[in-house]
Queue: 2 jobs
Job 1
Amino acid sequence: MNSLKHFAAAAVLALAASVGHAQMDSVDESPSAAAMAFDFVVVRPLGLVATVGGIALFIAQLPFALIQGEPPSEPAQRFVVEPAAYTFTRPLGELE
């Protein structure tokens, strides 16, 4: 009788876990309209400002990097490419 209770409890837990997993598969993870509007009105213009500022910083540090003999690829990546990619290639509403 005791083993029957354990079997029934295990069966209930297994069914509950499978139902919970099935519900998680149907979750809509697309961004909301509010997130898309916030991204378009606030975050994208700030990203554009960051890109232009990064270009200015890259140009300002470029002579020093060349004097030291370091390749400018790392500062270019940090100052220009990453802000530009965040601003222009990221899907609208995805802020991560």
Job 2
Amino acid sequence: MEYENRMKLEFDSRSANEGFARVAVAAFLSQMNPTLEEVADVKTALSEAVTNCVVHAYEGKVEKITVECMIRGQELTVLVEDKGCGIADVRQAMEPLFTTKPDSERCGMGFAFMEAFMDSVEVESKPGEGTKVEMRKKIGRILNKFEQ
């Protein structure tokens, strides 16, 4: 696929790096002249994806998370990838309120939030090999006749 611009980050799977990823992606997104709501939506979805990697993929071990962003026209694509434990049943994992950590403070809404704030979310995962989450969002609202 031909993209107008792209960037790629790799960082340790530490919860402190979730904020770094949010700011970096928001800065990259700024070239698309997004609304504040669009920036907040992308940052929220990204936060959920990165937090899933930190909490679930590596079970407390510090490994690498990769975030890649691509721009094509008015569409932003965000990929979040880990090489962790993977997800045995992606469909089940994407169900609202499903969590593999019921004894913790996890609420099982990560994928639901990603889907709510982005236009599309696709998850590929293999147990023992890792997970890749691809999220897409069209940036730039269409003005109606009263706003033009």
